């Protein structure tokens, strides 16, 4: 039996094992108990690193992602993490804090890109005056500041909910910021690239690579669509309870 999968960080030569999540339950096993996480050393017979994967053309050497091939791989039962059927539980325990961590980094990167936007706008003087003196660019700067601070406050609220009630009770707030922050970051970087012109999409400045990273965050740890569906279901439930329907 052969299975292909993607592994984050596997391209790093120091990476000697992977944590593989796979289906271990039968057809009658409850959905949330059907998967397990298993430690698989890459030296195990049947494990092949097929190729390193680039993201928007960047390979993130020496780290990065790899396509892995598992062919009839066998490891000891002791390599199970926490026990059989605990994969979903482990994943959910990490995903809440992991998602808000992505959002905090997104806000920091957005601040940096807004600074680059203003810096470039102060330097360039097309049509006889600096770019930042054009009203259309001033509006872009204002909208970026509003969007960043909106996401900062929503992130702080989600963090407060986690601290007070735990990740499970803060699922809606975590999903909300996981949708909002990467979208905001993509928008801020896009505006900065526009002010830089052709230089913004070159490797002479960090904006192109920043955008590549930002865009992947709309997929990492659950795509926007999954989070939006979850938010809607929780909101409908909350509204029904509020109205005693």
Automatic annotation (TrEMBL):
Names of the cofactor(s): FAD
Record-annotated Acyl-CoA dehydrogenase/oxidase C-terminal domain positions: 85-233
Example of a GO cellular component annotation carried by this entry: mitochondrion
Keywords: FAD, Flavoprotein, Oxidoreductase
Pfam families recorded: Acyl-CoA_dh_1 (PF00441)
GO molecular function, one term: acyl-CoA dehydrogenase activity
BP term (GO), one: fatty acid beta-oxidation using acyl-CoA dehydrogenase
Protein origin, superkingdom: Eukaryota
Classification via InterPro entries: Acyl-CoA_dehydrogenase, Acyl-CoA_Oxase/DH_mid-dom_sf, AcylCo_DH-like_C, AcylCo_DH/oxidase_C, AcylCoA_DH/oxidase_NM_dom_sf
Keyword Metal-binding: no
Protein family: Belongs to the acyl-CoA dehydrogenase family.
Protein name: Acyl-CoA dehydrogenase/oxidase C-terminal domain-containing protein
Organism field: Ciona savignyi
């Amino acid at each position: 039996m052969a299975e292909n999968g993607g592994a984050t960080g596997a391209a790093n030569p120091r990476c000697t094992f992977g944590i593989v999540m796979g289906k271990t339950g039968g057809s009658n096993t409850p959905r949330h108990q059907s998967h397990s996480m298993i430690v698989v050393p890459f030296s195990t017979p049947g494990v092949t690193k097929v190729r390193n994967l680039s993201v928007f053309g960047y390979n993130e050497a020496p780290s990065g992602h790899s396509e892995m091939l598992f062919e009839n791989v066998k490891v000891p039962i002791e390599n199970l993490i926490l026990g059989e059927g605990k994969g979903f539980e482990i994943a959910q325990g990490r995903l809440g804090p992991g998602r808000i961590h992505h959002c905090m980094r997104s806000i920091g990167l957005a601040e940096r890109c807004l600074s680059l936007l203003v810096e470039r706008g102060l330097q360039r003087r097309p049509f006889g005056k600096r770019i930042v003196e054009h009203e259309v660019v001033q509006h872009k700067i204002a909208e970026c500041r509003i969007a960043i601070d909106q996401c900062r406050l929503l992130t702080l609220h989600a963090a407060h909910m986690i601290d007070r009630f735990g990740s499970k009770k803060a699922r809606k707030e975590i999903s909300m910021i996981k949708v909002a922050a990467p979208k905001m970051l993509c928008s801020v970087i896009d505006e900065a690239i526009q002010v830089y012109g052709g230089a913004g999409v070159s490797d002479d400045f960090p904006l192109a690579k920043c955008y590549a990273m930002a865009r992947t965050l709309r997929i990492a740890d659950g795509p926007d669509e999954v989070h939006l569906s979850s938010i809607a279901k929780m909101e409908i439930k909350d509204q029904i309870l509020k109205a005693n329907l």
